[in-house]
Amino acid sequence: MRRITFTSESVDKCQLIFGKDLINSLPQSIRIVDSGFKKVYGKILKDEYLMPGGEHIKSIDRVFEIYQLVRTSKSKAITVIGGGSIIDLVGYASAGHTEIEKLFLFPTTTVSQIMPAVNGFGVNFEFVKDLLSSRGLPNKVFIDSSISYWSYSHLSRSDFLFPLLVALSFDKRLFKYLFNHLVSGSEVSAELWDDVIFSSVKAYLRGIEIGKSVVGGGIGRHIETASRLRAENQVSLIVGGMIELRLAEELGACDNRIVEDFFRSVKLLWKKDWTSRIDMSSLVDLIDQKGGVRISMPDGELDKTLFVEATVFERFVREKTWRGLESFV
């Protein structure tokens, strides 16, 4: 069993615990569980409070629902089991409630495992992505790579894109290793996946410590807001990453080779049922209202971020076709 201790700016500490069958040894607490995950692991979980997953769950009404749950329970600790959206919701509620003393996370998706919620939580308001935020830190995060490996091996190889994106953002050597493995066509075993998850988390935490965001995170959030939260989070993150990389490339701010390697990965792994079309007009309007957008650079670049003015972003979009995935790659 491997462990990492993350310390926030407030000197609060969070322990990340990696291992197998961790769901059988979670602390005693109120358990809030993604109902989709419950369908797969229903026999293991008992005495839980079910909530649906998805971005729509992150609302103030649901925050008050959690407060009611706490009021009727004797426990002062909460464990949330699910993906990033339900973790965001419960984390936000926990950070704002004085009677909740401990928060434990059990992320179940690849994205929520490799980008653990140690940098605060957000909920949506008036269709704006993460308009309300809190700076809470969980006490422990339990990461079982076999959970996300099942999704990778049974549902979608596209999950491999997210470790690639994290590595691109924070660890160029890790990116090169993952990319070479991908293009070689070699099988990803459960053991290798476990190492991928662990290495990606380490890279992500290093980025958080220096105040850097994952490539695509900024524009990805804008895509979700521009779509009134109808765009899927995973798709928005990848498309946001492609737009940020093309912007940085056109502005001469990053290494073209690593950009092209990532785009090649997208071509190999893009999930067929993901939409590749977004409302670029609404995205341009949103960024125009904000005066511009800050984008993140790949690891190894001189500057961590780059601010792109609204006029530059609009001209960049107008010069492209932007009709689908083929426009990005």
Descriptive notes:
The protein is an alpha/beta fold and 329 residues long. It has two domains: 2-150, Rossmann fold; 157-328, Dehydroquinate synthase-like, alpha domain (Up-down Bundle). Helix content is 47%, strand content 18%. It contains 14 helices and eleven strands. The chain has helices at 35-41, 60-71, 84-95, 110-114, 145-154, 161-170, 172-184, 190-209, 217-226, 233-250, 256-269, 280-290, 310-318, 325-328; strands spanning 2-7, 13-18, 30-34, 48-51, 77-82, 102-107, 121-125, 128-134, 140-143, 292-296, 305-309. The strands form three sheets. It has a seven-stranded mixed β-sheet. Strands 7-8 form a two-stranded antiparallel sheet. Strand 5 (77-82), helix 3 (84-95) and strand 6 (102-107) form a beta-alpha-beta unit. The longest helix is centred in the middle third of the chain and has 20 residues, at 190-209.
Calculate the terminal CA-CA distance, rounded to whole Å: 40 Å
Q: What would CATH call the architecture of the largest domain? A: Up-down Bundle
Q: Which class best fits the helix and strand makeup? A: alpha/beta
Shape: globular
The CATH homologous superfamily of the largest domain is termed Dehydroquinate synthase-like - alpha domain
| Number of separate helices | 14
Q: Give Rg in angstroms.
A: 19 Å
- What share of residues are in beta strands? 15-25%
Order of helices and strands: EEEHEHEHEHEEEHHHHHHHHEEHH
The residue-averaged pLDDT reads 91
Which regions have little confidence, pLDDT < 50, spanning 5+ residues? Answer: none
The CATH topology of the largest domain is what? Answer: Dehydroquinate synthase-like, alpha domain
| Count of DSSP strands | 11
InterPro entries: DHQS/DOIS_N
Pfam family, one: DHQ_synthase
Protein name: 3-dehydroquinate synthase
Organism: Mesotoga infera
